[in-house]
């Protein structure tokens, strides 16, 4: 069978994307990364480099601060 689970935590980045109706494709183009990387960031599977974290903070006008990835 398939292993299915529900995440209890929504990341600040995921909240930002959903609130602003930004697709993973649009986010990937804006940040010059892949869609799968955006999904991994949004779901908390991985954390961004300092450069990407800063770019997200700037793009989100502080809604996703660099510190939120710690």
Report on this model:
- This protein is mainly alpha-helical and 70 residues long.
- It is 49% helix and 0% strand.
- Helix 2 packs across helix 3 (35-42).
- The radius of gyration is 12 Å and the shape is globular.
- The N and C termini lie far apart (35 Å).
Biggest beta-sheet profile: none
**How many strands appear in the DSSP assignment?**
0
Distance between the termini: 35 Å
How many helical elements?
4
Query: Whole-number average pLDDT?
Result: 92
Q: Would you identify the regions where 5 or more consecutive residues have pLDDT less than 50?
A: none
Give the helix level as a range of percent: 40-55%
Helix and strand composition category: mainly alpha
Large-scale geometry: globular
Binned strand content = under 5%
Radius of gyration: 12 Å
- Write down the secondary-structure element order: HHHH
Give a quick rundown of the structure.
The chain is mainly α. 49% of the residues lie in helices and 0% in strands.
Outline the fold blueprint.
Elements lengths: L11 H8 L4 H8 L3 H8 L7 H10 L11
């Amino acid at each position: 069978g398939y292993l299915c689970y529900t995440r209890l935590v929504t990341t600040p980045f995921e909240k930002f994307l959903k609130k602003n109706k930004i697709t993973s494709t649009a986010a990937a183009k804006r940040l010059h990364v892949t869609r799968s990387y955006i999904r991994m960031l949004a779901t908390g599977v991985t954390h961004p480099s300092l450069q990407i974290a800063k770019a997200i903070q700037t793009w989100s006008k502080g809604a996703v601060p660099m510190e939120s990835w710690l």
